[in-house]
Each structure stands twice: as C-alpha cells, then as structure tokens.
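Self-study notes.
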Amino acid sequence: MRGIATMRGIDRRTALLGLLAVGITGCAAAPRGPQSSTPGPSEALHHTPHPTAHAAPLPPPPHYVPDPDAVAERFIGAVPTAWGMDLPGITTQLAASTDASLGPRIALTFDACGGRGGSDIDHKLIDGLRATRTPATLFLNARWIEANAALAAELAADPLFLLGNHGTRHVPLSVIGASAYGIPGTASVAEAVAEVWGNHVVLTELVGTPPTLFRAGTAHYDDVAVQIVHDLGETPVGFSVNGDGGATYSADVVRSEFGRVADRGIILAHMNQPQGSTAEGALPAVASLRVHGFHFMHVVEPVSEA
C-alpha cells in the first residue's frame, strides 16, 4: 500500500498535488432530489436511495490514531453488498438528547464541493448565518480549500462553524467504482482510503485537530466504504432533508424543503454556488424555524445561540 503510506506525515500541498489529479466538475455530483443513481460495475449491490434515520455509531476508542496503511490492508478483498445514501453506519440524524428542555434540535450542513465550477463561495449565505448566530457544519472538499485558503482558515477559526471532510476529489465512496449521478466512484480500497485521508491531512493542518465527520461526494457509499470511513476515525454523515437539490432548487422550494425538517434532522445544502438560490431560501427558512422553537446545532456538538 505504498500509495496510502505516502499520505501520512505530509504537508497540505503534497497531499493535494498527489490526489487531486482527477478533476470532477463542481457540484455535478451533488444529490438532486428524485434523480436515481446507478450501482456501476456491480448490479448486485442493494441500492437504498431514500434516507431514513440511523443512530449515530459509537465513536472510536479514546486516543485512537488511524493508520491508513493498516486500514487499506484490512479491507483488501472485501466485497460490498449494499450501496446508497442510507446504510447502517451513516449518520442521518442528530443523536438523542437527555435534556428535554432543549426542544426540537436540527443541524444545518453546507457542502463546498470544489473543482471547476464548484470552488466559489455564497457570501450571502455565510454572512446571513453569522448575522443571526446560526451554527452550521461545513463540509469542505480539498479542492475548495486549495482555491479558498484564506477563507477556509477564517471559517476554521470561527466557532460558529464546525468543519467536516468532503473528500479529496468529491466522488462517491466505493471499493468497486460504483457510480452516482453519472460520477464514477473510487474504484478500489486504496482509492477509497485516499479519498478520505487526503483531505483528512489537509483539514488537520487547517484546523489543528483531525476532522471527525465525512460526507462523500454525492453522499453515496457502499457498505465496505462506510466501515473504511469509521476505521479512519471519521463518521460518515448523510442527511434527512435535501434542502437545495445540489443548489438547483428555487428559493421557494428551498424554503419548503427546509420547512420539512423534524426534530434531530440534518439538512443538506450547498455553500459554493452563489448563483443559485440557496441563501435566498435558506435564510428565511432558518428564521421561521427559529420562531417555531427549533434550536440549531452542529452535527456532533451543540453551539450556544446568542
């Protein structure tokens, strides 16, 4: 596993140069509502396109330090049997709270997919979240970080936002090349490990601590890839509400989709397409949800609202 071994102990630029050679356009791979995806080379995979709630998996043991070489070796020859956005081990809702006084709790998550056409920033959205002190979990792709280094550092320093791993090349996570929305996924165990670990290195340098959350490009995984993410020390995160259809929905539809969220829900939307209507729909929806008693949290930890 020499290709994986080179990911350990390297700087951000080396990681990017080594793993960003394959370009995937913008957010073309983002979940877009009712579109179907194809399992790629294995039609035997069970496809689960519609998310339902799964309990958050147990965190890794204390002081666990992932070894990408060891993880890759462990899964050589593993054959996936399921494929989709809703598999055991993918977190699609917030963990239950023992404090009933908190009321309904939801998490806003925004993806930054990177690449050609996907490395912009929706300043109106970010500024609106800051103005209303609304916490959000931001899933950043390695290419987006490379294109927006100063802004990425600014977001990392803002406690309002929790940064998650959105992959190195923004592709579906598979060990056999399964595809979603016409985007081929990682084609081997080594590629799946590299897709997670390349940006793990980048985010660790950016934030100062390793990321604990991962969302694959297109939010699609096979069941072997899900376990690989866990063994690399991160939790695969899905969603319960597709808030902006890959930044393609109108403002009215975005507001309507955000309004469907239930207690402990995770909303997926995008922060890298300012030409879309995500901000115009999401910000009024956030205000309405707050009026109706919803509290906004990070995916893995609460943030106090001013």
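Second protein, same conventions, sequence then structure:
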Amino acid sequence: MSVWQFIQTQVLGMQWLSDLVGAGLSALGLDLSSRLGGSIHFFIYDVCKITILLFTLIFLVSYIQSYFPPERSRKILGRFHGLGANCVSALLGTVTPFCSCSSIPLFIGFTSAGLPLGVTFSFLISSPMVDLGSLVLLTSIFGVKIALVYVVFGLVVAVAGGALIERLHMEPYVEDLVKTAPAALGEAASLTRRDRLNYAKEQALSTFRKVLPYLLIGVGIGALIHNWLPQAWVETILGGGNPLGVVLATLVGVPMYADIFGTIPVAEALLSKGAQLGAILSFMMAVTTLSLPSLILLRKAVKPRLLGLFIAICTVGIILVGYLFNLVQILLLA
C-alpha cells in the first residue's frame, strides 16, 4: 500500500513538483497562503504536472495506436456481433483520439465501411469520454478507485448507448455523404520501430499544440475556483444540499469545448471546494462527449432525429452516472 501511495502522490500526483514550485515562489517572496500566491502556485504546478503527464501519455497511446490503423480496427470490429461488438468498439475507443471532434472522422469511416451503426456509436461515445489518459490523470488527482469507476461507468454508457441505437434501427437517419463515403484505406504498410516512435512523437507534439490553449484555460479557471470562489457557493450549487447539482453540472458542460486534460484542473478545484463527486464527473463527461463543436460536426454525418437521440442517450447516461457516483462517494473517497 505504501508503494502505491508513493506512486500516486509522487509519480502521478508529482507532489515533489508542487513542493519545488512552492519553494521557488517562496524564495521570490510570494506568500503562498494568500489568494494571489495560492493561485499562482496552483497554476504553475498544474500546468507543469499535466504537461508532463499529457505529453508522456499521448506519446505512449500514439505508439500503441500505430498498431491499429483504421482498416485493422474495422477488421477487428467486424469479427464481433451483438453486444460483444459494442463492448469491443467501446474498448477500442480508449486507444483513439483525445477529443470528440477528432473521433468523428473515424466514426464516419467505420460507418461507411459497413459496420453496424450501434457499434460505431459505442466507439463515438467512448473515444472522447474514456481513454488511457483519463485513467492516469484521474488516478493522479482522485485516486485509483475513482479513476477505475469513472472508466467503467463511461464504458457502460458507451455500450448501452450504442446497443440502444442499434435496437431502434436508426440507419435511415444517417446522411447520404456517410453512406457514399469511400471505405477506409487498406492495411497500412509495416512500420519499423523507428517509424512508430517518430509517429508517436509527431502525434504527441501535434495533439499537445491543440490541447494547450484549453489546458491553460482549464488550469486558470481551476486556480480561480480554488483560491477565489467562496466554498459556500460551490457547496450550495454543486454540493449534497442541491439534489439537482448533477443535472446542472451536466447541462453547463454540454455547450463547452475541452478534453479530459482541460477539465481535470477544474474538477480538482471543485472537489476541494465541496462539490459532490457525481456533479464533478458528470461535468467532465458532458464537456468531453457533448461539446458544441463536435455536435455541429456530427450533424453533417447524421440527421437531426439521430443526433437528438445521441444527445439524449449521452445526457441521461451521464446524469445517471453522476447520481451513482454520489451514492458511492463515501466509499470511493475512503
């Protein structure tokens, strides 16, 4: 247990980095107990910590992803049927792009290649909501129990949502451009280890550049919440005294655009201010899965009725997950 605590606090949580940043700011004469000093410390520490974890995770996941080009992924999914196909599709989403917008081209490719619509929607829900990065980052802040339960619940929403769409036979509500899109390219040529390392490095740099603005905004908001927002406000709006806190957090998160890396510091700050765990994680799921830009892109691929069903399934699923988290919060944080 002591070994795992060391990994969580020093390796993933990087407590040594927090101490180092604090010592540096104190040496410069900044009072860390003040609101300004605390905000600056929170901002520098979280930006550095998440940047290190982010770049490392993207590099590792991209290296793994190099073994799963679209055509190979399609072939893997094509071997499964029924609920098993939804499960495999949701799991495949954990090693694919980090935001909802970048998942949609793959969704279109899989659908045009003839995969069942419910299977491709399980992928589309899982890809931005649950990934290896979210598991590691959530572990670094909330602990392994919360991280694992978040991933499990996210996969359940993806599998159940895709299965429901399949059962409702929504194929007529896919736009013609998806039906007529060219199928995925053939199997990629064999890559050497150096090719995969170069691919992973390029993906890490490219993704980091895209994510950085949202990371800085997220950490900035987190710093303001952590050091300036009165705790009583957060507890009143998102605490246990408000039974609609989960619903409110979900609805607020829907029109926003960020990924798991931008929402983590906001979630961390909200938890420290007394917000319920379910409300926090529902907010994170809504932001990463139902962002307005991704819904606009998805509308070009599916008709309004199917888009509305997708939004409804995700929203209801996220809200249910939030209330489940609230029920088990005491156990998870024990």
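Instructor comment on the second fold: Residues 2-332 form one domain.
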